[in-house]
Amino acid sequence: MGRTLNSTHGYLLLSRRLGEKSAWTLWFSERYGIFGSRVQGAGRAAVLPQFFQCCELQCAETSNGVLVNQWLAVSSHALGVQESLLGFYLLELSRVLLPQQVAVVDVYSALESSLHSLAQKEGADAVRAFELQVLLSIDALPDPTWDANGNAIEAHHHYQIAEGQWYPAQPGVSGADIIALTEANVSPQRLSKLCKLCIDHALAGRTLKTRSVLAQW
């Protein structure tokens, strides 16, 4: 009885040749998240897509995991170096902050959308949108209307995060930026400092290697 193949968009993240006729690959897809697959066949192992090149994948679900059976590139180019680093940052962020035993479908969908946006050179929009999605998914984005004392967030005040709430403090993010979270068309660049503060709090001392690399780029 043949295997049932499922179609999904996916991106090749890493690959390693295991010989002339096989390779080990690491993929991300909206359907399966991050997964490894062995690729068999001299032709397929030798002609893998470029890293972060969007592909239409045909995958089989087996007792040993997901097996990539076929792929077809649906974009004419892969991400550039800087966009690839941002892509790895988004992947590391999701791996570190999200519970690994749970398939967070909304986050996988947001990550697929963000990787597509990176390919369109929309880096700031893609990164901020995904950071916000992750923070919302783990309930790490405090209420943007009230501080821990029950007072309304004031635009001219500054705030820090403690125990999942905003506390008036210097230095910190401006109340105006916090209030901007409630706006429909807020600038992604405006949310950069706020997202960093919330992510730092959620990391609780853990580090992201890609952050260090991007800081030097």
User: What topology, given as strand order, has the largest sheet?
Assistant: 3-2-1-4-5
Helix content: 25-40%
What is the overall shape? elongated
Order of helices and strands: EEEHEEHHHEEEHHH
Note poorly predicted spans: none
CATH topology group of the largest domain: de novo design (two linked rop proteins)
Q: What CATH architecture of the largest domain would you give?
A: Up-down Bundle
Main β sheet profile: 5 strands, antiparallel
CATH superfamily of the largest domain: Recombination protein O, C-terminal domain
DSSP strand (E) fraction? 25-35%
Helix/sheet category? alpha+beta
Rg, alpha carbons: 20 Å
So how many helices?
7
Folded structure, characterized:
- By secondary structure, the chain is an alpha+beta fold.
- It is built from 7 helices and 8 strands.
- It has helices spanning 42-46, 81-97, 105-119, 123-137, 175-179, 192-203, 209-216, and strands at residues 5-17, 22-29, 33-40, 54-62, 65-73, 158-162, 165-168, 173-174.
- A 5-stranded antiparallel β-sheet has the order 3-2-1-4-5.
- α3 packs antiparallel against α4 (123-137).
- The model has no long low-confidence stretch (mean pLDDT 81).
